[in-house]
């Protein structure tokens, strides 16, 4: 703790390094321009003196905490850890740190509000959580930009970054119809999530264009356990689906397990399966899951750029960024006679768009 | 942004809520005692006035940021997202927030040092990263407690929380020998990680006690791709192992994929597989992976308690907490004739300990 010793100041560091005080300040300001040699001198002097640049004191001057809060509720689904990792690296490259806000399980309303206010984050990214109108309003009043990631909301004017939820659902309908399937099932995520709603709407509209009725439907709530129960429900029906689209890969893996190990079904001969996200486990050969991709790095890059823009220019209009994905075909669906192409070791469905 | 309007102060909130200013302060101090009714009044008044309690200003008074930095390098391995989620919730219950520090890929030395110093974290938890002696020394000088999670180090006196790495490796040797296996393989994690080293030492010592030589060995570096290559290496040998222990579940799944889909091997008939951690994918029936457990919640509880203790009492001696695990048997290993018991839907190996 260096008790009794006066803490080193930036003046001490500047004197020892033989540079100006402003150089010391720049050396510790993320993203500031400084010659590599000067930075090295400052860092050496700071280390020798035990100097701690004080981001907190600085934040009182600049009124910026340089902390972005990010809420994510489902780290079980491999999509979100990958997002978190890329987001943390992306924000860091812009001089921000990521404060992880995990909503409490089952807590009723706006569990994040206190934290967001108390820690004075410069911005808030909500991934896999819904934005209440109360939280949106509080953030607006406090001047804290909010970005929805992999979600949209109709209750407030909020910027968002999503994949192609609606088109993805449509393309999946096109592929399954082209593969000769006739009885369709859908496993929904959390019912009020825009993501699940849009994927379902795209899927049912796509099926309708090919002359098919609404698919059989069960709710998996984005959880492995609920999706397993949804699979039992769908697969026990007299008119058992021969193709199921699950609103994400995580649920599709649960459905694959139930289909194989409880119903003795072969995939794709007895049951075709499609997920959404194209996460790492979709590529594991035991599942070889056909999935509509949400390209992680472009989505994260868009989110980082957008949140930084909102911080720098609070008057900027809200924006809804949609990052295009592709339907990556693997062994969990039958191969149609045509309509696909092989590229970079992946097979992409490019059949005629129904929409 | 409330331009032109004076920001509300805690005095304004106290007046409107009809409570004392100290009640307002308590309402926004994590962990402080306050009647539910008072808290409700304060929160209502704060909302109405757009009041933002200022954790940053408070941290200058208390010299506490109430932020804990946590570094985690491998979010691909499902163990770490689960840790992150539980750690964030556990710290929050103690009034701390978790700042996620992702080391940059391939950056040479102490990528975290700047962040730790600049953000004045109250404590630092290093999960799945090694602690350089430079970082350890800097943190010691700055009075920032450091806790290693799922790692230990011999280069500094640092507190740590780990599972039973050495005993786990031994128990796995006992189980595989009891199952009648005779040719053993080991897939190591990152070579200089204490966790991989201790698991390997336990395994080889356990095998030696039963009269077996060192296992065939390949390095998987905790990555899916490197573990797949390690599997190809081990399985192509003339004296192909009939049982492989992988230093974590994530690598064991990669080995299972290669064994089945590239070598046409049946698990466990041709090859037994054991992992470590007992993560969610180990339970997926396509893998049904036998694994030595690292009980997540007890490990996180121990880490949260330890880091809080270190913050409150900087003079406390360092401690190495070891959280006991169990060898959970599933279908990826042959069932020995005896030595196991069924409990809570799980089969636990309890055969005579070799150690």
Automatic annotation (TrEMBL), chains A, B:
Residue span of region Disordered: 1-20
GO MF, one annotated term: DNA-binding transcription factor activity
Domain HTH lacI-type stretches: 8-62
Keyword tags: DNA-binding, Repressor, Transcription, Transcription regulation
PROSITE patterns: HTH_LACI_2
Superkingdom as given in the UniProt entry: Bacteria
Pfam families, sorted: LacI (PF00356), Peripla_BP_3 (PF13377)
Record keyword Isomerase present: no
InterPro entries cross-referenced by the UniProt entry: HTH_LacI, LacI/GalR-like_sensor, Lambda_DNA-bd_dom_sf, Peripla_BP_I
PANTHER family: LACI-RELATED TRANSCRIPTIONAL REPRESSOR, RIBOSE OPERON REPRESSOR
Protein name as it appears in the record: Substrate-binding domain-containing protein
